[in-house]
C-alpha cells in the first residue's frame, strides 16, 4: 500500500497553552523548555550561562559612561547588613562596595543620570539612596536630606530631571517633606540634588492603591499603580513660577503587578499585569500574552510540564533588543524565564535560576543566590549540559480514521531523541536516537578540513530517516536532547487509509 508524506516545514511559532492541544498550529508547541527559534522556523537549544559572582543578588543595574567604563551593579546581604557592589563585566572582580546600608533586605532600583562630564547611576530601595560614579558609591544625603527616598528612580528626558516615587513612609521627601504611596517627586532640571518644594504631584490619592513602579521611554515617563498608569509628557510653568508636571491617566483596570516587572523596548513599554503581559506606547495597554495565558490563570493542559506563575509580586522583566525575558517563580520554589520575541511573536521558556534579571552590554544578567551572565558564546549552564525539549500538538494528518505512521525523515544538527505518541497519551512515546553527523569526507566547519580554515558552524544539515510502526488517529511529535542541537524539518510518512467499500459495508 502506498504512503503519503506530511512535511513539517517549520517549528517557529513557539509555545501555545491557550488553544486545545489538538487545534494548535503544527509549528506550535504544547510543551517546551530551553529552546529558541531561528528566523527560518528551526528549533534550537538556547545558549547557556556562566556564574560570574557567587553571592546573593538583590536587584540588578548597570553603569556605563562615555569613556567606555562598564560595570554591573547589584546588592547582597553580608551578615545582617545589605550593601551595594559594582563588578567588572569580565571575571566578576569587585570594583566598589558601598559599605553597610540601613535596610537588611530591600532590592535596589537603578537610574542612569548624566550631566556634562558627570555621569552617575543613582540607586534607591525606599530607605537608602546612593550614587555610583564608576569607582565609588556616595551617599548624597550625608550632609542634608536632599534626595527623596523612594523605591524607584527614573530620569525624565525632557529637561533631565531625576524622578523618585514608590514611597514607604510619610516623610521621605527632600528635607523630610511629606510623601505618600501616591507621590511622585521631581528634581530641578539638570540637578539631581536640588528638589524644589513644589516639585511633586499626587496621583489619584485616596484610591487605596500605591505606586508600583516607573520607567522612562523616549520623552515620556510612565508611573504605574495597581490598576492604572499615568504618562508624564512634559513640563510647563504656572503664572506664579511653580512647575507644572503634565500627565494623563490611562484608566482601564490594567496596572503593574510587581516593582521590577517592567521593561522598555524600541516599540513600547512592556509590563506584567495581574492577568498577562502588556505593551503600551502611552495610550491603552494591549495584552500580548494570550498564547500563554494559562501561565497566569493556571488552566494549562496536562501536557505542559514547565510550571505556572506562583507569585506575581516576585516577577521581573527585562528586554534585550526586541526580546523580552520575564522571570517568575513556580510552585515548589523553582524559577522560570518566559521569553518573548516581540517581532517574530513566539514564546519560549527557560529554566534560569532568576529572581532579578537585567539586560546590559549584549548579555542578560540574572540571579538569586548568585550572579549569572547569559550570552551567545556560552554553550552550557555553568558547566552543566542544557536539557531542552519541544512537543507538538495532536495532528490527525487530515483524516479522522486510524492510520499507521511508518517512517519519519528529519533534518537537523547535533544529537536528539525523537518520539511519537498516539491518541492523546500523556507520555511522549518511545524515544529514538538520531545523530545528524556529517560524512567524514565532506568539508566541515569548526575544523581545518577545508583549506586549513576554521569556520563558524557546520556546513550543512544532515538528513536522517527512522522507521516506525505507530498506529493511531492522532499523533504528537517530540524532540529532546542535552547536547547543543537544532531541528529544521521533518516529513512523516503515513500509510494511506483504506476507505470501506461496498463489500465491507453490506450485510
Describe the structure.
Residues 439-459 have low confidence and may be disordered. Strands 1, 2, 3, 4, 5, 34, 35, 36, 37, 38 and 39 form an eleven-stranded mixed sheet that branches. The protein has a four-stranded antiparallel sheet with strand order 6-33-32-31, with no helix packed on it. It has 507 residues and is an all-beta fold. Strand 20 (220-224) and strand 21 (229-237) form a beta hairpin.
Quick tags:
507 residues, mainly beta, Jelly Rolls, Methylamine Dehydrogenase, Chain H, 11-stranded mixed β-sheet, 4-stranded antiparallel β-sheet, 45% strand, elongated
Layout of secondary structure:
Blueprint (H helix, E strand, L loop, with lengths): L2 E6 L5 E2 L12 E6 L1 E3 L5 E3 L3 E5 L6 E5 L5 E9 L2 E8 L5 E4 L11 E7 L2 E7 L4 E4 L4 E2 L13 E5 L4 E5 L17 E4 L13 E3 L10 E5 L2 E5 L4 E9 L5 E8 L11 E4 L2 E6 L2 E5 L5 E2 L6 H4 L18 E5 L2 E7 L5 E7 L5 E4 L5 E5 L2 E5 L3 E4 L13 E5 L10 E20 L9 E5 L25 E11 L2 E7 L4 E10 L6 H4 L2
Q: State the low-pLDDT regions, or none.
A: 439-459
Oligomer: single chain
CATH topology of the largest domain: Methylamine Dehydrogenase, Chain H
State the major sheet.
Answer: 11 strands, mixed
The end-to-end distance, rounded to whole angstroms, is 26 Å
CATH superfamily of the largest domain: YVTN repeat-like/Quinoprotein amine dehydrogenase
Domain unit count: 2
Helix content: under 10%
Could you tell me the mean pLDDT?
A: 89
Shape estimate: elongated
Please state roughly what percent of the residues sit in beta strands, choosing from under 5%, 5-15%, 15-25%, 25-35%, 35-45% or over 45%. Answer: 35-45%
Instruction: Output the number of helix runs.
Output: 2
Structural class: mainly beta
| Beta-strand segment tally | 39
Rg computed from alpha carbons, rounded to a whole number of angstroms: 27 Å
What's the CATH class label of the largest domain? Mainly Beta
> Which CATH-level-2 architecture of the largest domain?
7 Propeller
